[in-house]
Design brief:
The complex is a heterodimer. Chain A is 46% helix and 20% strand. By secondary structure, chain A is of the alpha+beta class. Chain A has a 3-stranded antiparallel beta sheet. In chain A, α1 packs across α2, α2 crosses α5 and α4 crosses α5. Chain A is globular. By secondary structure, chain B is α/β, with parallel strands linked by helices. Chain B has 12 helices and 13 strands. Chain B has a 7-stranded mixed beta sheet with strand order 2-8-7-6-5-3-4, with helices on both faces. In chain B, strands 9-10-13-12 form a 4-stranded antiparallel beta sheet. In chain B, α2 packs parallel to α7. Chain B starts with a strand and ends in a 13-residue tail after the last helix. The chains are: A alpha+beta, B alpha/beta.
Chain lengths: 127, 404
């Protein structure tokens, strides 16, 4: 399969690769996917007291499109409020990366990942 | 070195320049372009002679009689003709067929079609090394079994099945035995005088011949009958109609002749290169060889790099052409059914890369491949959350993943 330029760019130069302290109260972690399905994404956000995402990190096991989707997402969520980040749709990611139909599930996984990270952060605040 | 490096010889091979050159003499007005079936003039006679020689060259590689060779468009057609042809011809004797889960789709889908027509098919499991357990095979035969189909060499793993023993079992039980030899002809010796094989499928383009041509061996003693799948002018003793493609057949004949002359030398070299590649990769952490190392053709190395997804690794190895059992490379989104049949976990099937080398692979290329593969596996593991977990001592199987 031939890849789009943006997928290749993110794949070869992934942004914001890394790990944050899962236990820290200002960090939300979302891990989605399954090894048996061929993709697992871990997305982490660091949130300021006023609810702004200050930093985001990811690691992804998966195809080039899965890596690119999560890399792009970390760029997009930085500086956004949690509400704004929650609004990001998989279709926007798929469109930006020009993902072919068989790769749309990679963008769905990225959307799931940011929601899981936000939900993890919020549950920590309630605790 | 020329990039990208071709390491997908099991998918197809380039045509040997000696073969390609000769094929050109059978196309234009200056050459032998006649219809081999035109028995009334010299154009036809010359083409018929060329086809006769090609038939002999194919028969010689496998120690068969040239009258036992039926030309087809390739191994897929040969598999279809053998399986459906036998099933339809012998349906009054029984309606059970025995085959194996790791067979090529041309065999599996032919069997599926027969199931739709009311036949019963048993798909045998293989052992973790990819080989059939002969006792399991014997036990699966029934009173009404008419046909068994087992591939000689597996296209994904390169594992060699013991077709000599399986043939003996089939003959004892009066079951017709078909072997798909698309991946073995020209790579390991085949002696059809010794083997109890009744039908064997061949392809030209896997051994440096042209695409679009193949053959089916149909045994004469004891005689095996088939119902034709392609009807028309009654070519190939009625088993496969259609004008013979002289230049294609000449190409296949040349490729088979060269294979017979050079197989020994080619194999020695390939074995050295394959070992060089395996030695260069096997000391990495969490690397698994798929399929038996000993019962395997010299040109194949199928490896799983755990915690790295196969398609992304192929993308990283952009200077080389390899293939993967990862789901992401197939339209079905299912990982390799062959590796799963070997009992490999889905994640290891997703992480597999098949390197297949051949006549034009060099040691310099292998050294580059080793260096590049090690570097890119390291890079992708740095990106992999599963690798982090493995390094932290977390058992990935202990986690409840949400399948999607």
């Amino acid at each position: 399969m031939a890849y789009g330029e943006k997928v290749i760019d993110h794949y070869e130069h992934p942004r914001n690769v890394g790990v944050m302290d899962t236990k820290s109260s200002d960090v939300g972690t979302g891990m989605v996917g399954a090894p048996a399905c061929g993709d697992v994404m871990r997305l982490q956000i660091q949130v300021s007291d006023d609810g702004i995402i200050e930093d985001a990190k990811f690691k992804t096991y998966g195809c080039g499109s899965a890596i690119a989707s999560s890399s792009l997402l970390t760029e997009w969520v930085k500086g956004k409020t949690l509400d704004e980040a929650q609004e990001i749709k998989n279709t926007e990611i798929a469109e930006e990366l020009a993902l072919p139909p068989v790769k749309v599930h990679c963008s769905v996984l990225a959307e799931d990942a940011i929601r899981a990270a936000i939900s993890d952060y919020q549950s920590k605040q309630e605790a | 070195m020329k990039f990208p490096i071709y390491l997908d010889y099991s998918a197809t091979t380039p045509v040997d320049p000696r073969v390609a050159e000769n094929m050109c003499h059978y196309l234009t007005t200056d050459g032998i372009f006649g219809n081999p079936a035109s028995s009334s003039h010299a154009f036809g006679w010359a083409a018929e002679d060329a086809v006769k020689q090609a038939r002999q060259d194919v028969a010689d590689l496998i120690n068969a009689d040239s009258r036992e060779i039926v030309w087809t468009s390739g191994a897929t057609e040969s598999d279809n003709l053998a399986i459906k042809g036998v099933a339809h011809f012998y349906h009054k004797k029984g309606k059970h067929i025995l085959t194996v889960k790791t067979e090529h789709k041309a065999v599996l889908d032919s069997c599926r079609q027969l199931e739709r027509e009311g036949y019963e098919v048993t798909y045998l499991d293989v052992q973790p090394n990819g080989l059939i357990d002969l006792d399991v095979f014997r036990a699966a035969l029934r009173e009404d079994t008419i046909l068994a189909s087992v591939m000689h060499v597996n296209n994904e793993t390169g594992v060699i099945q013991d077709i000599a023993s399986i043939g003996e079992i089939c003959r004892e039980n009066k079951v017709i035995f078909h072997v798909d030899a698309a991946q073995s002809a020209g790579k390991i010796p085949i002696d059809l005088q010794a083997l109890k094989v009744d039908l064997m499928s061949f392809s030209a383009h896997k051994i440096y011949g042209p695409k679009g041509v193949g053959a089916l061996y149909v045994r004469r003693k004891p005689r095996i009958r088939l119902e034709a799948q392609m009807h028309g002018g009654g070519h190939e003793r009625g088993m496969r109609s259609g004008t013979l493609a002289t230049h294609q057949l000449v190409g296949m004949g040349d490729a088979f002749r060269i294979a017979r002359e050079e197989m020994g030398k080619d194999n020695e070299r390939l074995m050295e290169l394959r070992d060089r590649l395996w030695q260069g990769l096997k000391d990495m952490e969490e690397v698994y060889l798929n399929g038996d190392l000993e019962q395997r053709i010299s040109g194949n190395l199928n490896i799983s790099f755990n915690y790295v997804e196969g398609e992304s690794l192929m993308m990283a190895l952009k200077n080389m052409a390899v293939s993967s059992g990862s789901a992401c490379t197939s339209a079905s989104l299912e990982p390799s059914y062959v590796l799963r049949a070997l009992g490999r976990d889905d994640e290891l099937a997703h992480s597999s890369i098949r390197f297949t080398i051949g006549r034009f692979t060099t040691a310099e290329e292998i050294d580059y491949v080793i260096e590049m593969t090690r570097e890119q596996v390291r890079r992708l593991r740095d990106l992999s959350p599963l690798w982090d977990m493995y390094k932290d001592g977390i058992d990935i199987k202990s986690i409840e993943w949400a399948a999607h």
